[in-house]
Design brief:
Length: 185
């Protein structure tokens, strides 16, 4: 039996549609959270720090992601705090694997998104889908060149987050992979 492909999850954009135009996105719940990476950039004792970072999450996303034929892992600046703070709010287990970035927001010499090289290394040749709001054609080309397995970079607009069509796409991609591992590039 073949191992399931990886589904590498970004938080801000796909799960937290931070650029939503509507103040209340249907089905989403607003949370006030204090991830370390955000808190360290706030003024001590400030109102912003007391209030916390506003994050909107969909409580059914966890169940919908877990219903897909993938192994889930976090690919986010939240790193281990995704398990602590995001997972319980959307109904995911709090022990998913986490990609630990060597440096957050590092400038890439070739203009790649700062996550891309570390993510490809972490995937270590396993098929994956990566959902993120920041990937570009450069990243797609890099993955094609440096990753010896099928991979899909699925851009998610931060205005919308993951939508029904994305879940369909994810399921279809994994099913095509299982039925014919050579078919998907
Ligand atoms: Mg993002």
């Amino acid at each position: 039996m073949t191992a399931k492909p990886l589904l590498l999850l970004d938080v801000d954009g796909p799960l937290n549609p931070y650029a939503a135009r509507l103040p209340r996105l249907r089905g989403y719940t607003a949370h006030r959270l204090r991830p370390a990476n955000w808190s360290s950039r706030q003024t001590p004792d400030s109102r912003a720090l007391r209030r916390g970072l506003r994050v909107v999450l969909h409580p059914s996303h966890g169940a919908r992601l877990q219903a897909l034929p993938y192994e889930l892992a976090w690919a986010t600046t939240w790193m281990h705090e995704a398990n602590e703070l995001i997972a319980p709010a959307i109904g995911l287990p709090g022990d998913l694997p986490v990609i630990e970035w060597p440096e957050l927001f590092a400038t890439d010499p070739d203009g790649l998104y700062w996550k891309t090289r570390a993510l490809v290394e972490w995937a270590a040749g396993r098929p994956f889908v990566w959902v993120d709001d920041m990937v570009t054609d450069l990243d797609v080309a890099y993955v094609r060149e440096h990753h010896d397995a099928p991979a899909l970079l699925l851009p998610i607009h931060p205005r919308h987050g993951l939508r029904a069509a994305d879940f369909v796409r994810l399921r279809e991609w994994a099913e095509a992979l299982t039925s014919d591992p050579a078919a998907e590039e």
